[in-house]
Design brief:
Blueprint: E1 2-5, H1 13-18, H2 25-33, E2 35-41, H3 50-59, H4 70-78, H5 81-84, E3 89-95, E4 97-99, E5 104-106, H6 116-131, E6 136-137, E7 149-152, H7 164-167, E8 170-171, H8 183-197, H9 200-207, E9 215-219, H10 226-234, E10 240-242, H11 244-252, H12 256-279, E11 285-289, E12 293-298, H13 304-312, H14 317-322
Parallel strand pairs: 1-10, 1-11
Antiparallel strand pairs: 2-12, 3-7, 3-9, 4-5, 5-8, 6-7, 11-12
Helix pairs in contact: 2-12, 6-8, 11-12
Length: about 325
C-alpha cells in the first residue's frame, strides 16, 4: 500500500507556528520504524505542486512542470479520448476572483458551494463561447464535487498551466499563462467574465449571500502517453490512496486550529492503522508532502544495530515536518 498525504506541513505562518504543539503519537512511532526512501524536491515557482508530482509518480505518469496529463487521464477514463486522441485536454474550474489594487485573488473554488444545478447552468452558458474558439466542453463535469469541466482543443496542446492547488486562496496574476498560444484563452476568459457578470445565476447567488462565479481556471494540461495510460490502469485503489482533501482546506486557509485537529484525526485513524501494519512487518510506503519536498518512507528490514540507533536517536516530529 502506498499512501500519500499532501499538506503534511502547511505553508502558512500560523500553521508553521503551531507545529510544536502538534501531537501525533502514532506518526511519531511510525517514523521510528520506517526508513526514508525517495525525496522529491519542489519549488514555490513550480506550476505543479510537489504533492501532485509525487502522486503522478505513484501512478506512473510523470510529466514536465505544468504538463502532467490529469485531464487526459479523465478523458481516457470517461471515454472522449477514444475519439479526440491523447493531446489537447484540460480542466476548466469555475471560480471567484476578487480584484485588489495591484493583483487579483482567487477564492478556493472548492469552498464556493456550487450546486449540481448551477454546474449544469454554467456549462450551458459557457458552451457556445468555448465552441467558437474550437474548444469542446464536455457535459461530464468531473472531480471536485462535479465542479470541474473536461475540455479539449488544440490550444491546450503543450500549454503548461498552474495547478488549482497552486492558486487557490492566492493571487493569480503570476500564474496566468502568457505564452502566445494562450492569448486566445485570455480573450475567451474576458468574454466569459462579461457573460457571468450579468448572468441570473449570480443574481440568485447574491440574494443568498454567496460569492459570485465570475471566472474560470485552466489546469490539468498535458499528454498521457499510451505507456502511461497502461501503467495507471495497473494501480488500483487497494494499492494506493491519495488523502488530498484531509488537510488541504485548513492548510490553504492557514487555519492552524483546524489543521492541527485534522492531523490529529488522521493520526488516530489512518496512521494508527499504518503503524499496526508496519509493526506486523507488512510492506507499506508513506509519502508526506509539504510545499517544497515530498519524502517517501518505507517499511524495510533493518539490522539490529540500525534499529538500536533509531531507538536512541528518535526523530523530533515537528522538526521533520518543518523540512517538508
Amino acid at each position: 500500500m502506498h499512501t500519500l498525504i499532501p499538506y503534511a506541513a502547511a505553508p502558512g505562518a500560523r500553521c508553521q507556528q503551531a507545529l510544536p504543539s502538534l501531537r501525533l503519537p502514532h506518526l511519531t512511532q511510525l517514523l521510528q520504524i520506517l526508513t526514508p526512501g525517495a525525496c522529491l524536491q519542489g519549488s514555490l515557482e513550480d506550476l505543479t505542486p510537489v504533492h501532485e508530482r509525487a502522486w503522478a509518480h505513484v501512478l506512473g505518469m510523470d510529466g514536465s512542470d505544468g504538463q502532467i496529463g490529469w485531464a487526459a487521464l479523465d478523458a481516457q477514463r470517461l471515454g472522449p479520448a477514444a475519439a479526440q486522441g491523447p493531446h489537447g485536454w484540460a480542466w476548466i474550474t469555475p471560480c471567484h476572483w476578487t480584484a485588489q489594487h495591484d493583483h487579483i485573488d482567487m477564492a478556493d473554488p472548492l469552498q464556493l458551494g456550487i450546486t449540481p444545478a448551477e454546474v449544469d447552468t454554467l456549462l450551458q452558458a459557457m458552451h457556445s463561447f468555448f465552441s467558437q474558439d474550437g474548444i469542446t466542453l464536455f457535459d461530464q463535469p468531473t472531480g471536485h464535487a462535479r465542479m470541474r469541466f473536461l475540455v479539449h482543443g488544440k490550444v491546450f496542446k503543450d500549454l503548461p498551466t498552474a495547478s488549482l492547488d497552486r492558486v487557490s486562496g492566492r493571487a493569480v496574476d503570476h500564474w496566468i499563462p502568457r505564452q502566445p498560444q494562450a492569448q486566445a484563452l485570455l480573450r475567451l476568459q474576458n468574454e466569459v467574465q462579461m457573460l457571468l457578470y450579468t448572468h441570473p445565476l449570480n443574481a440568485a447567488r447574491a440574494s443568498s449571500q454567496q460569492p459570485s462565479v465570475n471566472s474560470f481556471w485552466i489546469s490539468g494540461t498535458g499528454t498521457l502517453t499510451p505507456a502511461q495510460a497502461q501503467r495507471t490502469l495497473q494501480v488500483t485503489p487497494a494499492q494506493a490512496r491519495n488523502l488530498r482533501g484531509a488537510l488541504r482546506t485548513s492548510a490553504l486557509q492557514d487555519d492552524a486550529h483546524a489543521w492541527l485537529h485534522a492531523w490529529e484525526q488522521l493520526d488516530s485513524t489512518l496512521i494508527a492503522e499504518l503503524l499496526q501494519q508496519a509493526r506486523a512487518g507488512q510492506p507499506l510506503q508513506l509519502t508526506l508532502c509539504g510545499e517544497l519536498q515530498a519524502v517517501t518512507l518505507e517499511n524495510q528490514p533493518r539490522s539490529l544495530w540500525s534499529r538500536l540507533q533509531r531507538r536512541w536517536q528518535p526523530r523530533v516530529l515537528h522538526d521533520f515536518l518543518r523540512t517538508l
